[in-house]
Amino acid sequence: MNTESQNIEFKESWRDEYQKWICGFANAQGGILYVGIKDNGEVCGVQDAKKLMEDIPNKMRDMMGILLDVNLKEKDGKAYLEIVTEAYPYPVSFRGKYYQRSGATNQELKGAALDRFMLRKQGKTWDGVPVPYLKAEDLDNATFDLFRKYAKRSGRMEEADLMDDNHGLLEKLRLYEGSYLKRAAALLFHPDPEKYVTGAFVKVGFFREGMDLVYQDEVHGNLFQQIMKLMDLLCTKYMKAIITYEGIQRIETLPMPREALREALLNACINKDYAEPSPIQIRVYENKLEIINGGVLPEGWTVETLLSSHRSMPYNPDIANTFFRAGEIEAWERGIKRIITACKKDGFSTPEFRYDASGIWTTFKFEYPERATIQSDQKTTQKTIQKTIQKLTEQQQAILVYLNEHPNATRKELCEKIPGVTMGGVIHNLSRLQELGLLKRIGGRKQGYWQIIE
Q1: Cα separation, 143 vs 222, whole angstroms
Q2: Which end of the chain is more exposed for a tag (fewer CB within 10 A), N or C?
Q3: Residue 391 DSSP label
Q4: pTM of the entire predicted model
Q5: CB 321 within 8 Å of CB 242
Q6: Phi and psi of 182, rounded to 5°?
Q7: CA 345, CA 357: separation in Å to the nearest integer?
Q8: DSSP, res 41
Q9: Strand, coil or helix: what is 259?
Q10: For each of the chain's 454 residues, which pLDDT tens digit applies?
């Protein structure tokens, strides 16, 4: 006799509570419940087998509205029952609760897991659910302009469609369900999607050995904005670049490929389970970067499935379609393959992938030259910066001091706070400080901030 598994369960005798197990089989891939068999597979026999053969199907029909086969079996003169349950295409409940077989256990579905189950059984996805009160006028025009720019460059949309107004563009992207916008529209184009989706942001932290958090940031905004901000933040603040020169050209080399990082960020945002309120987490250490995405793989999939050829099944297909039209991703679920290819092309080792109860983990190992080289470059750079600062004008030094304390300051604010400087002077000095490598603008005019390069 086979052992217990995803599709097989043994019980020594029948109890009405075992209807939960049959409900769990019906809501998963189907299965067989044997009655009259011990956990080790030894047949112990069952009492009143013929009566149970009549009672059990009737109870299943009345309690859950399902049909099943109950077969009488015999071994070594002992009778036992084989109850065969098919997988049902619609949700099956037992006394108002939903159960599902997972591995060798039967679990009651609650919260986000129940939402996922119900949507899947209805042939729907989380990002395709309509959102009341969300209008096209609430969405961010700058993000629409950015999308049009990307989509024109990719050639994956007709130019006539891109010239349409925002409402028409949303229709072309299939982001309407009847007269309602979908959740995907809020995540992609709303300036503050957290108004509609809790946890729709990214937490970034830098950790020392022993899991000591040194500093952290949160990245908010819609998904297009998040990707841009994360690339800037991770490449300038969280990862040390190696500085080399070819002639007079300055070259910055990160410890991992930018293309692979961008692909991994897109992959996390597109496949996150946004029904879970926890944000995507990015943990950066001296020697590695981890992206933890609270995503859920399709039923029966493993990390090995992701790493092999597989059909395209993005968790949020409407979000994936929009990023595809923008030329940000490929259509046929090649995200993992593109990450690996980008690493190999630039001579880096491939990242590690892991899937557990907390979600999908992507870990990049940093690959720097010898640490002495890094330290030497850092010291040289610091000396150069110190000499450069000594040559700054009083106004330029005052601007650096003010921006160090007020990184979100506007040009108008600088003009008002720095004595004796005009708006033209502010613009000139900001440009000069950026040329000298002492100042960098992170993000756009409205959402961005100034970063002092130390």
Answers
A1: 8
A2: C
A3: T
A4: 0.68
A5: no
A6: -85, 165
A7: 32
A8: S
A9: helix
A10: 566 677 899 999 999 999 999 999 999 989 999 999 998 889 999 988 889 999 999 999 998 999 899 999 999 889 999 999 999 988 999 999 999 998 778 999 988 788 888 888 888 899 999 999 999 999 999 999 999 999 999 999 999 999 999 999 999 999 999 999 999 999 999 999 999 999 999 999 999 877 788 999 999 999 999 999 999 999 989 998 776 666 556 677 889 999 999 999 999 999 999 988 899 999 999 899 999 998 787 777 778 877 777 666 788 999 999 999 999 987 655 778 889 988 988 889 999 999 988 889 999 999 865 443 444 444 444 445 455 555 678 888 888 888 888 888 888 888 888 888 888 888 888 888 888 888 888 877 767 788 887 6
Q: Which two tokens stand for residue 109?
A: 């579905």
Question: What are the structure tokens assigned to 73, written together?
Answer: 């079996």
Q: Which residues of 15-39 are buried (b: 16+ CB within 10 A; e: fewer)?
A: eeebbbbbbbbbbbebbbbbbbbee
- Fill in the DSSP letter of residue 199: T
Q: What is the rounded distance in angstroms from the CA atom of residue 31 to the CA atom of residue 12? A: 17
- Token code pair at residue 56: 């059990």
